[in-house]
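We treat protein structure as text, and this decision shapes the records that our systems exchange. Such a record has a labelled line for the sequence and another for the backbone structure tokens. The record that follows is passed on verbatim for readers who wish to inspect the format:
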Amino acid sequence: MVAGPEMPEVPDPGGSGASSHSDPPKALPEAWQPLLGRPALAELLGHPLAGAALQEMCRLLPPHLAVHSLRTFLLADACARTHGIAYDRVGLLAAAAFHDAGLVGRTPLGRGGFPYRSAQLLDHFLTRHQVGTVRRTTLTRAVREHMRPFPARDSGPEARLLHFGVWLDVTGRGERQVPGDRRLLAGLAPTPRFALSFSARVVACGLRRVLPGSPVTHR
């Protein structure tokens, strides 16, 4: 992973449900271990909100989407370290864990498609863990807008970093900013033909919005 300046630790504004002592997350899939061993993730494993997000990702996502989510976080962190960007590390891990959750299941999707649904699931998770409104709004916006071609001009560091990590992992866009990181992470936790399977899932998810018997919910 590209080395960079030490990132300042960001506190948990509004509360995170964290206590001063926490247990490490329960056993996580073997395929995740090479990524969990990377410093940016290993440093967060004892944090209650990070551990809970990883457990939810394990429960919600199929293996290839879960690995993509971990790579997304690591690529985003590499970009932040390279450019000296301070950001909510634990919050971004939670956002990465949920950013594709709306692609899973048969829940009818309304306006905004699967990113909107993913943001809703993240918001419910953060609310359960007593995360404050301002922080929830920042993180859910990052998830809601991650499929835009480019981040909005007024988006914060979490939205920009999540967007960067997602697009780099799937398409390779932005690779010059963190040269070698995408290839390294793909070698540690490969998902062959991921871009093709991901695109097919996105298309199927779009079709799901208009399937007979699955009325669209307008918001």
Remarks:
- The chain is about 55% helix and 0% strand.
